[in-house]
Every structure is written in C-alpha cells, then in structure tokens.
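Incident review: delayed structure delivery

Summary: a single-chain prediction request sat in the queue longer than the usual turnaround. Root cause was a stuck worker, restarted by the on-call engineer. No data loss occurred. The affected request and its eventual output are reproduced below so the record is complete for anyone auditing the incident later.

Affected input:
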Amino acid sequence: MTAVLAEGLKKHYGETKALDGLDLEVPQGEIFGLLGPNGAGKTTAVKVMTTLASPTAGRAVIDGIDVTKNPKAVRTRIGLTGQYAAVEERLTGRENLELVGRYFHHKKSELKSRATELLHMFDLMEAADRPANTYSGGMRRRLDIAMSLVARPAILFLDEPTTGLDPRSRLGMWEFIARLGDEGTTVLLTTQYLEEADVLAKKIAVIDHGLKIAEGSADQLKDQIGGDKVRVTIVKPENIQRAKQAIVPFATGAVDQDPESAQTLTAPIHAGGGVVPNIIRGLDDAGVDVLDVEVRRPTLDDVFLVLTGRAAEERGQEEL
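Output delivered after worker restart:
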C-alpha cells in the first residue's frame, strides 16, 4: 500500500518554481529518502505534503487522503520534525511531550504514560525533568522527534533531522530513525547527505529544481555513477603490475594507476560482499605487500556531477 503519493506536484512563488512537477511514491512501512542540495525543493515538498503549503498544481495524497481536500484528516495521520528543533525551551522534556498530547486531547493518564514511554525510547529519561534549554543539540533533536510521535502517527516526515549535529549525535540519531523503520513507521526523510540516505533509506529519490532526476536504492544510484572506489597503495612500485592483476577479478571496471604515484591503484567496486578483504587476500596471495587500502564512497556532489553535469554546491541557494 502507498503511504505518500505526489503526482505532478508544483509549488510556485511568483517566478520561483520550488516544485515543478514532482512525482513520488512512498510504500507503507518504509524509510524513504528525499535527497538533494539546498534549494532543490525538499522542504517545499514536505510543507505541501504536510498541509503547511497549498500546491500550485498537481496533487499529494497521504495515507489515501488528498491533502487539499481534507487537510484536517491528513494532520491526524502524520508527524513532522523540521530542520530545527521546535521545543519549548522553558519547559522540561516531559512537559513538552505532555503539551503535545493535550493538543490531541489525550486523557491525563494517557499523557503521562505516553510521555514516559517516549522518554525511555529516546534515551531522555534521566533528563526528563530538566528544562529543554539545558539539553545538548542531539538531545533536543531526539525530543523534537519524540514530540512528533506522541499521537502515534502512521507517517513521519523528517526534514533534515541531523542538521547542526556533531558526528556522534548524528550517529545516535541514525540509530533512532532506523529503529522507527524497524517498528513499521513510514518515514520520509529529507537530507543533503548520500551517506545518511544510504544508511537509513530503502529507496531514495534525488531531486533538483523541484523535479525528481533519479530514483532507486543507494547501491543502484551509486552504480549509476560508477559505484564505490577502492584505492590501494603498495610498498614496492616494482610490484604494481602484479598488484593490478590481483585486483582485476574484484573490480567492476578498469584498474588504473594513480598518475601521481607509482605505488597506487584505483578501481571501481560494488559495495559490500567482502570485496575489500578479498582484494587484500588476493594481493597477499600474489606476494604484494600493502601499505594502505581506502574505500571512497560517492557523495551527493558525485551524484549531481553525473546526473546534472555540475556539483550540488553550485546552487548556492537557501532551501525552499
């Protein structure tokens, strides 16, 4: 069953075409990634699909309900976390959660039990009765997502949920989002980071100028642009041809020598499947001593260079 559907979705602000015919289909119970640079239209898409903005043309359907025809019913089925944590700084974590529950007319006993459940789920119990202005950035983001889950929404929209987080907090946030997916919540995640979409999303749509320009799993998208690349540096340059022959069986394309190093080879490979350990064993069997092995994963810029002929960062716009 389809949880989120967008057909020919357009949103124009004067001459600016934030969305210009976006098509999306998100299956129920999956984490779906919407990938693109600032200004691509990710946030505008989320605003339209969560009834915060009206489409100029096209339609969006959430859990079988048209967002334009029945926005009130849509709001009862969704949760939304924006790019910046929308918590009430003066209230405690528990009070923030209970406040949201009151908006949904939950009974007092249900408010308290649901708040406690979410505080445990998001590892915030020890800070439950502290004001939110004492929380770290990662804790605020966790509280923000917890608040969006108070009403047990069928579909959760996460708009750049790791914006501004340090690497450790980002990894922690990935764990919580993955857990939501494992529990059957449909999640539409917008992000600028291919790595983030790779880790979390079963399927990814790449958008630019308000249009979908590619769609598939992370591996399918990476294969379109040559996949992962392994870079091998050996100890003795005289063994470079022997090393090349050892790598060829595991490469998906040409094995090339680095023009700046007589000891380094690069080759495209498929991610996973023990390819790198197999390459190292193959080099060892060939009697080649290895100095360093590095795997380079494609970035959003790599995707955009291939799909659009330019880097993502060249847009230089604020997100729409």
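Verification: The chain has two domains: 2-87+135-222, 228-296.
Action items: add queue-age alerting; document worker restart procedure.
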